[in-house]
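User: Hey, my collaborator sent me this sequence without any context and asked if I could get a structure. I don't really work with proteins. Can you help?
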Amino acid sequence: MHAEERIERARVAYERAVYAGETAGLAGAERELDKVEADLALARGRILHARFLEDRQEVTHELALFERATQLYRMLGDLPGLAESLFWVGCFHQVVRGDTRTAIPLFEQSYELATQAGDRFTQSEVLRHLGIAEHSAGRLEAARERLEESIRLRREIGLLAGVAANQVGLIYIAAAENRTSDALALAEEAYATAADCGAERIMRQVEEARTQITMPATDQG
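Assistant: No problem. I've predicted the 3D structure and written it out in structure-token form, which is a compact way to encode the shape of the chain:
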């Protein structure tokens, strides 16, 4: 049900209560509006996060929005919503605050709930960020496994720009493992995938990764 429909049902419930004394629908209307509020808080938080990725300026109420969405989804018993909002709380701590220790348990909760709900999108998001955490900790094999599983899920749901984004991480892992030919092959594939999707930011990331791989050989020459 769309937000407009939920709001309209709440309006109808109000009118029935005020004009006809039918108050039985008010509780349901409140739940409908809680769902709208949760969805809106999550959406606003995502917009603020996208702005952070652009200018790297923290907006403190980004976290408050994700936490409010989490509170409402939990109250509503909405497993997919709760899984996604927990992921975003974790993402805020990991990406904005650089606090991986706080983020990991949130990611784990999110993944468990997303698995129960059959939400492959949120599963893929969590696995990507767990892979980033493993990579940062120097656990390259674990990082590769997380990113590859995320790629598998993203292919299944058709999120090809997300596939290319994960491949950027795999490029750096391959380079760190001295698998230069694999890294360059991944760069070719990731660039082509990103180009097909119009994912210009990912294309630039691939080019940056490719430059870092080839630069040492250039310097030596």
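In plain terms: The mean pLDDT is 95. You can pass these tokens on to your collaborator as they are.
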